[in-house]
Write a structure and sequence with these properties.
alpha+beta, 4-stranded antiparallel β-sheet, 89 residues, single chain
Length: 89
């Protein structure tokens, strides 16, 4: 099972490292990363394998969102089932 993680906000040192660390703590493997900085805005999309996660998806998503709120970033984790369901409609 996979998840898509998006991060958007003012560019600062360590965003990628911190988000990766949150994934690592939960045994979530990042399989792909795309990031760019547009002027001073950091934008990143990650594909993550959540099959071996040690916590529930909602708890993981909440951890990311909390880190985002504390650091003026918009961080969202979306389960791949959401995307699969959209294409079945």
């Amino acid at each position: 099972m996979r998840a898509v993680i998006t991060v958007v906000g003012k560019d600062t040192v360590g965003i990628l490292a911190k988000v990766s660390g949150i994934c690592s703590q939960s045994h979530i493997n990042i399989t792909e990363v795309s990031q760019t900085v547009m002027e001073d805005m950091f934008c990143m999309i990650m594909m993550a394998d959540i099959s071996d996660s040690t916590i529930g998806f909602d708890e993981f998503s909440d951890k990311l969102a909390k880190y985002g709120e504390e650091n003026a970033l918009s961080i969202h984790a979306m389960h791949e089932d959401i995307f699969n369901s959209m294409h079945r409609i």
